[in-house]
Amino acid sequence: MHDVTQSILDHVVKTDPHQPEFIQAVTSFLSSIDNLVDDLPQIVYHKVLDRLVEPERVIMFRVPWIDDDGQLQINRGYRIQMNSSIGPYKGGLRFHPSVNLSILKFLAFEQTFKNSLTGLAMGGGKGGSDFNPKGKSDNEVMRFCQSLMTELSRHIGEDTDIPAGDIGVGGREIGYMFGQYKRLTNRSVGVLTGKGPSYGGSYIRPEATGYGLVYLSAAILEAKGKSLDGKTCLVSGSGNVAQFTVEKLLHMGAKPVSLSDSTGVLLDPSGIDAKKLAYVKTLKNVRRGRIAEYAQQFPEATYIPHNGGSDSNPLWDVKADYAFPCATQNEINAKDAKNLIANGIKLVGEGANMPTTLEADAIFKEAGILHAPGKASNAGGVAVSGLEMAQNSQKLQWTPQQVDQQLQQIMKNIFASVSNAAEKYSTKDNYVDGANIAGFLKVSEAMIAQGYV
Ligand code: NDP
After folding, report:
1. Where a domain ends, among 300, 335, 368?
2. 326 touches ligand 1 (CB under 6 Å)
3. 119 alpha carbon to ligand 1 midpoint, in Å?
4. Helix (H), strand (E) at residue 275
5. In terms of domains, do 256 and 113 share one?
6. Residue 116 and residue 257 share a domain
7. CATH number of 127's domain
8. Which of 90, 105, 114, 126 is catalytic?
């Protein structure tokens, strides 16, 4: 590593030794930027990298709420306002028991470059809570969301910081938080995205991350003279991103054969068709059930219990053409990466943020796997959030076709800028480097232009 990037990494490790996910995200980013340092001395002179790894602001607060038994519960809430150089902070809220500063800082860091890649004026942010919505009643979730927003409302605004959803935060949670924001401020503005279409939400926002992932993957394949048609695809997760990834894969003629959740893996070699996908949507979104039930409903499928305890995930040890990790960070380790390659995988398109470990990244690179990193391939979600902000400012609602068309164009533009940056500054088809570099160059220029803030 270059002296400059190494000293930034050393500083991060020394300052935040207990933040492994943040250190991992910074390490991956700095190794892509390494080659640029000598060519762009202004980055060093203006200490752009030193500033990038330090959030502009971190807000941490208590979230008290009353459960259905009348007991007071306390959770911790966060908002990381990472970088506002190209626009107001923008990024989702995650509700999951694993949430901590390290995970949210890694997500906010990634978000800064992802938002830059969309070409829209959005800075990077992320937030959430260690609250676990699983097993909670709607009323408990509502009381929690209202309490969280009571504090968060002081720090956000339609031109300041605009949160959205992420793991554990879907339409239900966004609705409760938006209602509370309006009640507290007496203002009906686009302060959150991912709202329902009846109260200011954009059509295609729920679909956008999964659809965008498939659009970008199709663009990569097209550039290689390949397509998704008739290809067997592995998909992990069974939430928002996984469901709409499967849906768009079906539109494109591919054959998705897997799903998962935090307790197990579902393999359906006969393919997850539209009817089975509709079952999954009701199971997960309405009944809030477990993916294991799929195998009871459709006996041709197999359910394998898996909670991350073993050294590899059976989901990644299945013969297929392309893999789409859509659950969570570090869900593909070195062993999984080797298994995927042995099973003939040619493309890994990341729906989740940082689903591959640094070791897995290196294995894919070495094997020449087409690897679309999350900050490029899952940017469709935040891109349509940006379009929702534009519609809210105009007090207009665009049709689903208009939004989908813009999403497709944005994903094509992202592919072009990522592959151009890879070819110019790194190696052809190294989309991991290309995404880091293309996202960074714009942020860096904006930071330098605005002085030392
Ligand atoms: P959801 O909460 O809708 O679904 C998450 C899915 O991943 C669930 O199936 C969940 O299983 C599974 N999962 C979560 N944590 C773990 C874990 N530790 N181990 C195994 N499985 C796990 O979230 P999303 O679909 O919205 O998000 C999925 C990924 O996509 C995340 O990395 C997120 O940051 C990223 N992303 C999401 C965007 C969006 O627009 N929603 C935008 C860009 C990226 P279970 O039901 O058991 O919890």
Report:
1. 368
2. yes
3. 25
4. helix 274-281
5. no
6. no
7. 3.40.50.10860
8. 126
Ligand 1 pocket check: which of 93, 241, 243 to mutate, most ligand atoms within 8 Å of Cβ?
Answer: 241
126 a catalytic residue: yes
Q: Indicate whether 221 and 160 sit together in one domain.
A: no
- Cα of 98 from ligand 1 centre, angstroms: 12
**404: in domain:** no
At 359, which CATH number? 3.40.50.720
Q: Which of 368, 389, 411 is the last residue of a domain?
A: 368
Instruction: Give the angle 378-380-382 at the CA atoms, nearest 5°.
Output: 95
Residue 275, Cβ neighbours under 10 Å: how many? 8
Find out whether the beta carbon of 165 lies less than 6 Å from any atom of ligand 1. Answer: yes
Nearest residue (by CA) to ligand 1, atom 4, is 239
Residue 282 located in a structural domain: yes
Per the structure, the complete domain to which residue 157 belongs is given by 46-187
Tens of pLDDT, residue by residue, the chain (453 residues)? 999 999 999 999 999 999 999 999 999 999 999 989 999 999 999 999 999 999 999 999 999 999 999 999 999 999 999 999 999 999 999 999 999 999 999 999 999 999 999 999 999 999 999 999 999 999 999 999 999 999 999 999 999 999 999 999 999 999 999 999 999 999 999 999 999 999 999 999 999 999 999 999 999 999 999 999 999 999 999 999 999 999 999 999 999 999 999 999 999 999 999 999 999 999 999 999 999 999 999 999 999 999 887 899 999 999 999 999 999 999 999 999 999 999 999 999 999 999 999 999 999 999 999 999 999 999 999 999 999 999 999 999 999 999 999 999 999 999 999 999 999 999 999 999 999 999 999 999 999 999 998
Q: pTM value?
A: 0.97
Number of separate domains in the chain: 2
293 domain-assigned: yes
Is any ligand 1 atom within 6 A of the Cβ of residue 378? Answer: yes
108 lines ligand 1 (CB under 6 A): no
For the Cβ of 261 lying below 6 angstroms from any atom of ligand 1, the answer is yes
DSSP state of 285: I
- CA distances 50 to 27, 104, 245, 338, Å, are 13, 19, 36, 35
Query: How far apart are the CA of 41 and the centre of ligand 1, in A?
Result: 39
Q: Could you tell me if 215 and 353 lie in one domain?
A: yes
What secondary structure does DSSP assign to 37-102, as a single string?
A: TTT-HHHHHTTHHHHHTS-SEEEEEEEEEE-TTS-EEEEEEEEEEEE-SSSSEEEEEEE-TT--HH
